[in-house]
């Protein structure tokens, strides 16, 4: 089993290094998203008089908006992330703002696009409301996925994002009178609370502790509870075993993932999926062409005699889907990253 384990990782590293050498010879492919001004016109008076909406992104990665599967393009905003959203929201709500209104705070937790049978956007955000423009109470939590059908889906991501932001505003307006009764918080306190998740040891520690993470909680704590383990591969399926003190092995039903030689892997569909960190995101390695991997063949020279075994494990890795999107029926978009809230794959 030890030799099979080594071969699995050698093969995975070889694939990553080959992909790196191929990718670094190309210019990074991007799809730039431009949000077009679309002023919101309420039918009648708005329910919440607003003097303004302040937008604060607390996303795991604010350099991009996701991935476009066709051509593996990176979707990026046409300007700095905060301005990208704030400028659009100000344009959208220009006719709504009143000097004597309340102040609203939008905390953007996730905003990403992808493609399937249509253009897909996910917006996860919280809205906070303040009467004195200093202390806020939670008004609305929002997490939705919109799918827009189009002949050329790559061309409608900007419209899809704009529509999601407008829907969020409408939901906020309809939530009038439902602000939480919890103690009011300042903007700084709200942002600090949202950023707390990125202070978990996995984001701070300089070394990933080697072993198997049985849960996402263990992963965040960088504290694998199984440090003595074996791996077997049968019919292209990976099984992980905990090695007991008497040298017997117990199969681990559904571990979250593992760390080996400083590399991270998520266990999914009986495969070990390599992950790379980018900002505060853990992204499927296949989508990290612009990031040079820190390890190289020299790192694995100590186990090079087993490289020959890699041919026994040669197969084309399956596409790993993100959780089902009801709007797409049986179609599931490709997983590209780990959701920092749930630990599951998302598109």
Helix/strand layout:
Elements: H1 2-23, E1 30-33, E2 50-57, E3 66-68, E4 73-77, H2 81-92, E5 102-115, E6 119-130, E7 135-148, H3 157-174, E8 185-186, H4 187-195, H5 201-204, E9 211-213, H6 216-220, E10 229-234, E11 237-243, E12 249-251, E13 257-260, E14 263-268, E15 271-278, E16 281-284, E17 337-338, E18 345-346
Parallel strand pairs: 1-4, 2-5
Antiparallel strand pairs: 3-4, 5-6, 6-7, 7-8, 9-13, 10-11, 11-12, 13-14, 14-15, 15-16, 17-18
Descriptive account of the structure:
It contains six helices and 18 strands. The radius of gyration is 23 Å and the shape is globular. The strands form five sheets. The protein has a five-stranded mixed beta sheet, with helices on both faces. It has helices at 2-23, 81-92, 157-174, 187-195, 201-204, 216-220; strands spanning 30-33, 50-57, 66-68, 73-77, 102-115, 119-130, 135-148, 185-186, 211-213, 229-234, 237-243, 249-251, 257-260, 263-268, 271-278, 281-284, 337-338, 345-346. It has two domains: 2-24 and 200-346, no CATH class; 30-194, ABC-type transport auxiliary lipoprotein component (Rossmann fold, 3-Layer(aba) Sandwich). With 347 residues, it is α+β, with helices and mostly antiparallel strands. The longest helix has 22 residues, at 2-23. Strand 13 and strand 14 form a beta hairpin.
């Amino acid at each position: 089993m030890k030799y099979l384990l080594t071969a699995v990782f050698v093969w995975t590293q070889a694939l990553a290094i080959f992909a790196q050498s191929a990718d670094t010879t190309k210019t990074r492919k991007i799809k730039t998203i431009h949000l077009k001004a679309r002023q919101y016109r309420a039918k009648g008076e708005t329910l919440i008089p607003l003097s303004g909406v302040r937008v604060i992104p607390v996303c795991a990665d604010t350099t991009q908006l996701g991935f476009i599967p066709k051509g593996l393009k990176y979707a990026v905003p046409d300007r700095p992330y905060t301005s990208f959203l704030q400028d659009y929201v100000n344009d959208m709500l220009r006719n709504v703002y009143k000097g004597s209104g309340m102040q609203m705070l939008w905390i953007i937790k996730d905003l990403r696009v992808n493609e399937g049978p249509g253009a897909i956007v996910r917006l996860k955000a919280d809205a906070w409301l303040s009467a004195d423009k200093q202390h806020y109470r939670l008004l609305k939590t929002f997490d939705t996925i919109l799918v827009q059908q189009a002949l050329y889906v790559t061309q409608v991501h900007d419209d899809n994002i704009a529509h999601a932001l407008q829907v969020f505003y409408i939901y906020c307006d309809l939530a009038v009178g439902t602000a939480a009764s919890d103690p009011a918080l300042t903007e700084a306190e709200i942002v600090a609370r949202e950023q707390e998740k990125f202070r978990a040891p996995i984001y701070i520690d300089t070394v990933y502790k080697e072993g198997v993470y049985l849960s996402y909680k263990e992963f965040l704590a960088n504290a694998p509870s199984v440090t003595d383990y074996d791996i077997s591969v049968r019919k292209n399926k990976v099984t992980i075993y905990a090695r007991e003190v008497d040298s017997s092995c117990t199969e681990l039903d559904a571990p979250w993932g593992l760390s080996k030689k400083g590399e991270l892997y998520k266990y999914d569909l009986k495969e070990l999926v390599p992950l790379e960190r980018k900002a505060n995101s853990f992204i499927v390695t296949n989508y990290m062409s612009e990031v040079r991997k820190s390890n190289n063949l020299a790192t694995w020279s100590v186990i090079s005699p087993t490289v020959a075994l890699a041919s026994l494990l040669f197969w084309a890795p399956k596409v790993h889907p993100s959780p089902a999107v009801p709007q797409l029926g049986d179609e599931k978009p490709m997983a590209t990253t780990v959701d920092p809230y749930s630990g599951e794959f998302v598109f």
